[in-house]
Amino acid sequence: MTRKLNYSSFAKLRKSIFAINYHSVTETSPVREKEKMLMLIFVVLIALSYASLMIALKKGWSRLETPLYDYETPENRFSIVIPFRNEAENLPELLESLLLLNYPLELFEIFLVNDDSADDSEKIISEFIEKQPQFDLKVIQNSRSSNSPKKDAIKTAIEISKFDYILTTDADCKIPQNWLQSFNTEIIKSNPAMIAAPVTIEVNTPKFGTAFEALDFLSLQISGAGAFGLNRAFMANGANLCYKKEVFFNQNGFDGNSDIASGDDVFLLQKFIKQQLKVTFLKDKFVVVTTKPLNNFKKMVQQRIRWASKTSAYTSNFAKLIGIIVFIMNLAFSLSLLLGIFKLFPFPYFMILFLVKFNVDFVLLYNASQFFKQESLMRHYMISSVLHPFFSVYVAFLSLFGGYQWKGRTFKR
């Protein structure tokens, strides 16, 4: 009798639960449809915003004129500034490339600024100077006065420089032979206060990690250049940047952002633009500076955190808009893929984001790879296109909530 009662009670309970579930499903299904519609609207808005932005940057890139290669007679004088810290491994290639510069020796000087190196960097430079006494090359010590060692190094050199134009690069770079010829010609033709120029990562290995790093770098390069073409410039790279010394001093140099460790390039660019000074991007294949890949995921993350940590201090509203749209797209892409795998988000909605992002990014990156003659990188694009949003979101969150390490130093946000 007890068993029958228990079984009967269980059966009634099961029917009651089924009835409750049935009613709750039928009652909430319109709500779920409404939620799906809102999700779809959100996805479409993100996709359209992102696609519009990337298409605009592609148009900006196309608007940039590629110069004719009839160089003007050398007449402008350059002070080349290169900060270094423990770069003994990279300095020989840099110095060798400087030796090959096709420009009158009396029209440029070189400052290598030692930022507290503990390796054989100075010894390597001293040996080079002994072998090449015709070069006006000086090694000076960094004079620290702010939270930014690199800005201090550049400022230290500029204060004792004797020529009209400052040209900065990095110690892990290689310089093209007609580097100064190209800048001289651009100055004669356009007379800008600042000239930004392209930088690319040297790729000598088929490894995916290097390709991923190079593709990420290409995306930054073409986005920054495209913004110049839209007259909305906000980003430049200090590894290939030229500006008038007089204007640098008139604008008080790095004052106003000296508390931020990085940004010797972008903050100076945005300061020039704020004063309505003429800035240009030199879309010239013969002026491209190459830098070495990090080939280390941890170092790459730290470098990207260093770059991302300064974005909150940008004065450019266009730069902030780009940052917001790109971050939202990457976050939506990452979350929708993860939730879609566990059937917590409609997978077709993820596919909308994926297809839009995949295609517009491909167009941008393919154009960049053609310009830099790195089309082989596109073989890795499929995998990179899935992984890169996760990487970007990861870096963005780290840049918001923590500091970073760079060249043996720890910096707070």
UniProtKB/TrEMBL annotation:
In terms of superkingdom, the source organism counts as Bacteria
Annotated Glycosyltransferase 2-like domain ranges read 79-197
> InterPro entries, per this entry?
Glyco_trans_2-like, Nucleotide-diphossugar_trans
Transmembrane stretches, start-end: 37-57, 318-341, 347-366, 386-406
Does the keyword Flavoprotein feature in the UniProt annotation? Answer: no
User: Which key words are in the record?
Assistant: Glycosyltransferase, Membrane, Transferase, Transmembrane, Transmembrane helix
One term of GO molecular function = glycosyltransferase activity
Family the UniProt entry places it in: Belongs to the glycosyltransferase 2 family.
Can you name this protein? Answer: Transmembrane family-2 glycosyl transferase
